[in-house]
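Lab manual, section 2.4: Encoding a predicted structure.

Procedure: take the sequence of the chain (163 residues), apply the prediction step described in section 2.3, and record the output as structure tokens. A sample record is shown.
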Amino acid sequence: MNAPAKPIAYPMKSSRFLLMALCLSLCVQVLPSCSTGGASERSTRQRNLITIEELVSFQQLSAYEVVQQLRPRWLMADRAVNVRGSGHEGPKVIVDGMPRGEIDQLRTISVFEIQEIRFLNSGDATTRFGTGYVAGAIEVITRQLVSRARPLPFQPRPPNFRH
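Recorded output:
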């Protein structure tokens, strides 16, 4: 017969290690739940996108005023000096994929018409729309474009279809 196994005596250092590991795991689980409501709200907001959910409370303003209140950095942070020396150039405005000109064009767009507003840095804007977007672009997607893009409930026949 085998003799009963003797209990293993752990040295004091091992128990300290276990205690520290337990405390660390407890901190990792508890600390994320201690954040404030404002911080968690901010984390869900994307810095390069203004969604329709954010636009709901701004129905009486223009797109420019909304960007000014929600993402003011879009209007001033990425200003670039024009190579020709004509001063500072801000981001260009693009509405439903079509260039509309300078930043003041946002003043002519009602928030009621907008589905989302997106900021594109200079690299992304140049890739999508060509040269001339040194300071990036502010792309506006209207509700009209979104409603036109919805799939039809039926499949249309091709133009050369014959019975």
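Check your result against the sample. Residues 30-43, 154-158 have pLDDT under 50 and may be disordered.
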